[in-house]
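Render this sequence as a predicted structure.
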Amino acid sequence: MKIHDFDTKKGIYSFQLDQLNTENHSHPVVEIISAINGTFSLQSNGQINDNLVFAIIDSNTEHKVFSKNCSIRMLMIESHNLTLTEFLDNKGVKFKNGVFSKTNLAKKNELFSEVKNLARTIDLKTPLDTRIAESIKFIEENELEYKNLISELTSKVCLSDSRLSHLFKEHIGISIKKYLVWNRLRQAINLYLRENTNLTNVSVQSGFFDQAHLTNSFKNVLGVSPSKAYNSRILQS
């Protein structure tokens, strides 16, 4: 695996892989997969689409990807406002049950690059609701257990537990508890890529109980184990 971007501030994560085979999973990012050569298969909503060269999976959509003799480029974007949705709509991207897939797409490389450039130049990550934007900023900047986190957040944004939970899921698509796991996963990956340490140390530093807890969370969110996914600490240019 080559890791081209891992930017937690902007929410841009891009990779190149010789092959990709995942378990069923979902994550709070829009995922774009583009075949460099060969084709891949995508399973979602009980259906399997074969011989694909390009796919976009909307955030929080359960799916499974499997490929053979297919190198791919992957781009994950944290999208919590309407900018990316409107951009894709203008490009003719229409999701069906959270998935857009093509067996042939002449301008797939161009679309891939355009989305990446959009994420680099425009803030796609910040939610429109300032209370939810403030909540996300607080989660990312503080290491708190869930119970204490909720208490701090409700006080900070002046909302009840239930109202905050409702608004958060409305804007982000997942619960605060699940977003907390996502935030810890990003921290763990970031540490593993940039520091000369092992998965056990990374697990503890990122708020997981142990390496097994990190591995289970990683599989649920990203579909593969951390050791299988991040076998390189080097960010490629």
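Summary. The first helix runs from residue 83 to 90. The mean pLDDT is 92.
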